[in-house]
Protein 1
Amino acid sequence: MSRAIIWFRNDLRLADNPALIAALAAHDEVLPVYVLDPRQHGPSPFGFERSGPHRRKFLHEGLADLDEQLLAKGSALHAFAGQPADVLRRVARMWDASFVYTQGLNAREEVLQELEVSRELPLLLHGASTMLLPGDLPFGLRELPEVFTDFRKAVEKGSPVRDTLPEPVSIPTPREWRTRPLTVEELPIGKPRIDRRVVLDFQGGRAAALARLRHYLWDTRAIAFYKETRNGLIGADYSSKLSPWLASGALSPREVFHEVKRFESIHGGNESTYWMIFELLWRDYFQFIAAKHKSALFAAGGIRGSALRGKKEVELFERWINGRTGQPFIDANMRELAGTGWMSNRGRQCVASFLAHDLGLDWRMGAWWFERKLIDYDPCSNWGNWQYVAGVGNDPRQGRRFDPERQANTYDSDGAFTRLWNAD
Ligand SMILES: Cc1cc2nc3c(=O)[nH]c(=O)nc-3n(C[C@H](O)[C@H](O)[C@H](O)COP(=O)(O)OP(=O)(O)OC[C@H]3O[C@@H](n4cnc5c(N)ncnc54)[C@H](O)[C@@H]3O)c2cc1C
C-alpha cells in the first residue's frame, strides 16, 4: 500500500490537474492537502496585511468548492495553516505517506516553499499553471526574450497547447481522512462588504468558474466582441473576468484555450477570439519572466536593475489607496478596488502609472496594495505588470506614463464610470 500527499496550491480543481493524475497513477491512495502559509498573508513591508477580506472570501469559497469536488470522488480536503514543509512533514508521518505531488509554481516565495518541502520529503512537481509547458517553448528560460512580442511570435510559430487532462473518476483516500476546513483563526474573513456597484458577483470555486466561462463564450457570445469591448470599465461583459478563477486555478488556462478553439470551430474565429488567446499568452509570459528573474521581480530596480527609486511617502500613498488623490478618474478606479477587490485592466494601468510617475512613489507600495486587494492576485502577473508600467520591467519603451485626463476622455468619455464611483 503506497500513499502520497497531493498538495493543492493555485490549482483548486480536479480536471486538467497533472500533479493529481500523476499521484493517482503511482500510488494506491492519495491525501489531498491545502496549506495556507501565514508568511503570505501576514504584514507586508508597508505594514498592512497581505490578504484582505475580498481575497480571503474568494479563497475560502474556492477551498469549500474543492472539498465538494473531492467529496464527490470519495475523498476530502484537509486544509491547514502553517509553513508547508512543517505541515506536510507532519501529515506524511501521521498518515504514512512517502511522496508529495504538487503544481510547480514560478514566483520567488512559491519556489522557496518547494525547496523547503523538498528538504523534508520527496517532492514531485508537475506543470500547468501556464497554457504552454516550459518544455514546449522554443527557448530555454535563460534565453526567454525580454520583449513580449518576440516571445509571442516565437511561440505562435510552433509551441503546442497540450490537451487538457480528464478529471479522475475516483480518488482513493483512507477511510478516516475527513474534511478539515481552515478555522476562522487560520483564515479570518469576517464579513467583507462588497459594494453593490461591483461588476460581477464573484464566487470562488470551479462551479462559478465554469458558469462564467459558459456565460462569456456560449450564452452571450461576448467573446466575439472582446477586442472592441476589452477596455471597458462598467458592467460584467466588457472582458472575460476569468482572472480570479485562473489565479486560484479553479480553471486552467489550457481549458480556456481549448474552449475558445471549440467556440471558433462552431461560430468562427475573429480578431476578438484571437485576442483572448493573445492575452493568455501575456499571462504565460509573466509566469516565465518570474521564473527567469526570480527575486529581481520584486526589487525596486526591477528586472532591469534600474537606479530609479520612488519615494515612500505614507500620506500620498494613503490618498491613493483611499481614492482621494483629487484626480477623479484615478480616484474612481481606486474606490472600485477598495469596495470590490476588482479593477479593469485599463484602470490598473492608469492607477499604477499615476502612483509611479505622477506621485513619484515606490512602485512596490502599489504592487503590495494590489496583492492585498485583488481577488485575482497572482504574483507573476501582478509584479510583472507593475514593473512594466513603472518602467523597470519588460516594456521596451520604458515607463510610459498614462495621462489620466486623456485616458478618462478616451475610455470614460461620458464620465459615467467616474461619476459612478465618486458618487459618495
Ligand atoms: C498594475 C497591474 C497589475 C495587475 N495584476 C494582476 C494580477 O495580480 N492578477 C492577474 O490575473 N492579472 C493582473 N493584471 C493583468 C490584467 O489587468 C488582468 O489579468 C485582467 O484585467 C483580468 O480581467 P479579465 O479576466 O476580464 O481579463 P481579459 O481581458 O478577459 O483577459 C483574459 C485573461 O488573460 C490574462 N491577462 C489579460 N491581461 C493580462 C496582463 N496584462 N497580464 C497578465 N495576464 C493578462 C488574464 O488571465 C485574463 O483573465 C494586472 C495588470 C496591471 C496593469
Protein 2
Amino acid sequence: MPELPEVETVRRVLEHRLSDATINRVDVRCAGLRNPFQRGFASMLKGSRFEGFGRRGKYLLLQMSRTQTWIVHLGMTGMFTVVDRQVAGRPASQRLYEGRHDHVVVKLEDGRCLIYQDPRKFGSMEIVPTSELHHHAAVGRLGPEPIDPTFDDQVLASQLAGRRCSIKAALMNQRIVAGIGNIYAAESLFLARISPRRMASSLVGIHGGPGKRCTRLAAALADVLGRAIAAGGSTLRDFLSPDGISGSFPQSFRVYDREGLVCRRRHCAGIIQRYVQDGRSTFVCPKCQR
Ligand SMILES: [Zn+2]
C-alpha cells in the first residue's frame, strides 16, 4: 500500500508531467472505487487545468482551475500513468481500451492521457471546493506531516499524550501522524529502538514533553521517510510511480519483511520476529527494540 513516500513520489511526477495541462474529457469506466463516484464527477473536471500538486498524508490534492481540489487516495493498488500521444505507434486513445483496470481516463488537450488504474478498487476520488478542504471528513482531520520542517519531538509528544494504544497503532492512526502505514511504522520504530507494542503515551515525559524514545522516534521518522522519498518510494507489488520508475527503497529495509533474519543493527545479532498486531504483520528485533 502506498504510504507517504510513495504518494509524494507520485505527486512529484504528476507535477513534472502535468503542470498547466488542461482536461478535455474524462471517461469514468466503472461505477465507483471504494465509494461510488460523486454525481457529475467527470463534468466537474472537464475543461479544468492542473494548477497545483499538493499532498496531505496519503492523499494527493490536485488543484484544478483555482476553485476545486481533486482529492485522490491510491488505496492498495491505485496507480496513475501518463500516456503520451503515441504508444507503440498507436494514438494514446487506442491504448486506453486495453486495460481492464483503467477506471478513469483523463484526456488532455495536448493529446496525452492520464490513466488511473486500480485492480482492487480500494482507492478513492472526490472533487471538493478548495475553500472547504479543511472541513473534509478525512483530509481535514489529518495529524501533522512527519516530514514538515516544523515536525519535531515536541509535536510528536503532544500527539501521543494520553494515547493508551500501542505506539505502532498510534503511528498508523492518520489523525495522530499523517501518511504512515505498516512499512514505515516498522522501519521507524526499528531505527528508534522502540518496541511496536510499547504504549504510545509512555513516550511522553511527566510534563508532557518528549521522552528519550520520543526524541529518537521523531528523528527516525524524518530519516526513514526522507530516505524513502529520495529513493523514489518503495515498490511493493502493485505500486509504481506514474512514469514507470520503480522505487529503490525496499533494498534498504532494515526490519520490514525480514522475519528470521539477523538484525541489521551492528553488534545486536537478534533474530527478526514477525507477529500480527491489529491484523497487520509487525516486524521487530526483540533484542534491541524495547
Ligand atoms: Zn536488533
